[in-house]
Write a structure and sequence with these properties.
Layout lengths: L13 H11 L9 H9 L5 H12 L14 H10 L6 E8 L4 E7 L5 E8 L4 E4 L3 E3 L14 E4 L2 H17 L6 E4 L9 H12 L11 E5 L3 H8 L6 E5 L5 H7 L8 H15 L3 E7 L7 H11 L4 E7 L13 H13 L4 E3 L13 H10 L9
Parallel strand pairs: 4-7, 7-8, 8-9, 9-10, 10-11, 11-12
Antiparallel strand pairs: 1-2, 2-3, 3-4, 5-6
Helix pairs in contact: 2-3, 5-6, 7-9, 10-11
Bound molecules: iron/sulfur cluster.
The site of iron/sulfur cluster has 12 residues, from loops.
Length: 380
Amino acid sequence: MESATQARPKTPNIVLAKRQTRAKRPLGLYDLTLPELEARLGKKRLPTYRARQIWGWLYRQFAPDYAAMTTLPVELRADLSAELPISTMETVQIRSADDGETLKTLYRTGDGELVETVLMLYPDRATVCVSCQVGCAVGCAFCATGLGGLTRNLSAGEMVAQVVGAARQARERGRSLTNLVMMGMGEPLHNYAETMKMVAILHDPAGMNLGARRITISTSGVVPRIDALAGEPWPVNLAVSLHAPTDALRDQLVPINRRYPVTELMAACSRYIERTGRRVSFEYALMRGINDADATARELAVLLRGELCHVNIIPLNPVDVLPYERPDAVGIERFAGILREAGIPTTVRYSRGLEIDAACGQLRAKAERLASQPSAGPIG
Ligand code: SF4
């Protein structure tokens, strides 16, 4: 096979992207923690309870604007509205699939970048899949998001806006948002501080009160940040995008493996399990002829033997500009069966919304392609 990462751009300078993020992005109310909001209103000599009122409107009522916050004085609403928008994100498009059980929303940030969010409604839960970066520096070989490299990190507020938007969509359908997975565009552990701030905002008991056990942070394997996450006060679920059991194969599919090889990654996962007592999920995007051989399944079983873990096999969502394919149903079940026979808890998770480009980064990629054409019309 041709080197899977041959056509990829070099890893962009993440520090530079962070500086650009701070310099350019406008702040919104969703960027503030409750203590920050209290401090801001305190400078206006307003009582603390006003901050809690606003917090309730934001994260219990999902108020779309200040006008809806009817328990606040009209002058305060006007004052805040002139000074700080609630959200800096604008909805560009909402697409629905799976009989309305999957909603994919494309947002435009205040500085004109496109990001996407997916809400998935199941009988027993409603899960939002959030993006944490515009683009991604990791450059996984099979991923649409990584094709253009990293543009910038999203702020906590830009991530919170995605979650509140999904909570509002769920409520409109008579449901409550129950789970959050950081599996959209970007590597959350490359945007660690803002991701943790988002968790703090959503976890706040005076607001959305989303429990840490309902939040999953997915990583391609940023080893030092896995250790940092293990030390956080909130024991979130950790999902690791493994995709290959050996360095030879993982170097090709997930280039960050060259920096943090499989042995180091597995050691960090063991430390996470030991410190938090939480089971780690290993995500495995199954690709025909690439990582779906019986021998590869057996190597994976040996690697994971004895760990408190679970494997999610995700048959690949093909990306039209990349040469990777989904195995057939027989191949998928055979791979899962080898793991199960070896005693590894394994599920097969088919991605939602194939027909609406639900693979991460595909809706954005298509929108940008169309936007670059002179007669670009609506997506779809
Ligand atoms: S799969 Fe995730 S980590 Fe890999 S390039 Fe895509 S967004 Fe980045």
